[in-house]
Amino acid sequence: MTESAIHTDFAVIGSGATGMAAALTAAEAGAEVTLFEKMRNLGGVSNFAEGMFAVESNMQRQQYVSYTRDDAFKTIMEYSHWRANPRLVRAFVNESGATVEWLIEQGVEFDELTTNVPGGPLVWHVLKGPHRERASMMMKMLTDRTKQKGADIRLATPVKRLMKKGGKITGAVAEKDGEMVQVH
Predict the structure, then answer these.
(1) What contacts 13, CB < 8 A, 6 or more positions away?
(2) If you write DSSP's letter for every residue of 82-107 in order, what string do you get?
(3) What pLDDT score does 1 carry?
(4) pTM of the model
């Protein structure tokens, strides 16, 4: 088994919507980015999304939706019987509206607001496009933008382990066709 090493400013493991957004954001900031995806195609389960949750987005403001971040936080925490990590839930809720706006800036389009609970608040932002193509259209848009910004995207290259030094992650070891690649 051969081994090689690469140096990058920012390594991303996984090309779902979160990984692709992280890679794009880092690349936009001028970082040298390497994204590793274990599958032979990009997107993971994000290719099956129909929309996303958000509170206090511009779409909601335009439709006079008065459901707030505090309302959403309370709903989520009560639903989980206050067992969910409150700091994580708060961060997720607080950034949700800005996330939708960032996706729109990247060229992603949303069709409508709806709910997935009868009589519930309008927090579900449905992606625009034919039903079975919505998510793949979003992922293609994010992938194209990430590539345009110069990210090195490596398909069929699973990360096998993280490298640590002094309790900090300093890199990763990935594998491609039997070759181990150390990422620093």
Answers:
(1) 19, 36, 159, 172
(2) T-S-HHHHHHHHHHHHHHHHHHHHTT
(3) 58
(4) 0.87
pLDDT cut 90: percent of the chain above it:
86
Residue 2 pLDDT > 80: no
With vertex at residue 39, the alpha carbon angle to CA 139 and CA 47, rounded to the nearest 5 degrees, is 25
Nearest in space to 45 (alpha carbons), one of 124, 139, 152: 139
Give the SS3 label for residue 65: coil
Exposed/middle/buried for residue 111 (C-beta within 10 Å: 0-12, 13-18, 19+): middle
- 28-62 residue pLDDT tens: 999 999 999 999 999 999 989 999 999 999 999 99
Dist. CA 175–CA 159, nearest whole Å: 6
- What 3-state DSSP class applies to 72? helix
Cα dihedral sign, 161-156-109-129: negative
Return the bridge partners of 5, or none: 182
Strands of 124-127's sheet in order across: 51-53, 124-127, 110-114
